[in-house]
Write a structure and sequence with these properties.
By secondary structure, this protein is α+β, with helices and mostly antiparallel strands. It contains five helices and nine strands. Helix content is 24%, strand content 33%.
């Protein structure tokens, strides 16, 4: 059962990283209502390999959910993509495990195609999901793959994520590893993930 769950997350990560997986990529292009400040992080650990998938509202990462209109907004978007792609500054795996990023893919889904399209805050979810909203929603979906030379030493993941992105408040975390699986929420008050229950 554990192996199946790890394979499911690994398959999802592979579907995003492989350009030939056009059907999977197309299915991921739709964005539903989301809660600003809240993201999701899935982590799968198996045999020295760590796969991670982050989903976060664009508002949390760049402060807006429309196509960038100004030079400042364009720079903010470019900087955020670069920071997310680095991975190691956003998520810090235990140094003793000697993990190295082997792949990363950053996608911004649902960004309004036209810079002139207004963002309607009156019909937008802030603090709760609004499935009936007609406002534009955009989110970042980021996948990472790491390889660790000393997998037994992988005990924590530090979350520079909250420091890097001021709009981020919480992450719903799902962990799957050799010892089992678990899920919980982390926030700014404790920006670290303990992997002891699963690795």
């Amino acid at each position: 059962m554990k192996t199946l769950a790890v394979l499911v997350i690994a398959a999802r990560v592979a579907a995003v990283l492989l350009p030939t997986a056009s059907i999977a990529q197309e299915a991921r292009r739709e964005v539903g209502a989301h809660v600003h400040g809240e993201g999701k992080l899935a982590v799968a650990i198996e045999k020295g390999k760590v796969s991670m998938e982050l989903e976060a509202p664009a508002k949390d990462i760049i402060g807006f959910e429309h196509a960038p209109k100004t030079a400042k907004e364009k720079k903010t978007l470019a900087d955020a993509k670069a920071r997310l792609a680095q991975g190691v500054k956003v998520f810090t795996l235990s140094p003793e495990a000697q993990c190295k990023k082997s792949a990363a893919k950053v996608e911004l889904i649902g960004l309004a195609a036209k810079a002139t399209k207004a963002h309607n805050h009156d019909k937008h979810a802030h603090g709760n999901a609004d499935a009936g909203s007609t406002a534009e929603h955009a989110e970042f979906r980021v996948t990472y793959a790491f390889e660790c030379k000393v997998p037994a030493a992988l005990k924590t993941i530090g979350l520079g994520y909250f420091e890097a992105f001021k709009g981020a408040e919480r992450l719903d975390v799902s962990l799957i590893g050799p010892k089992g699986q678990t899920s919980f929420e982390v926030g700014r008050e404790k920006p670290s993930i303990d992997l002891g229950a699963v690795n």
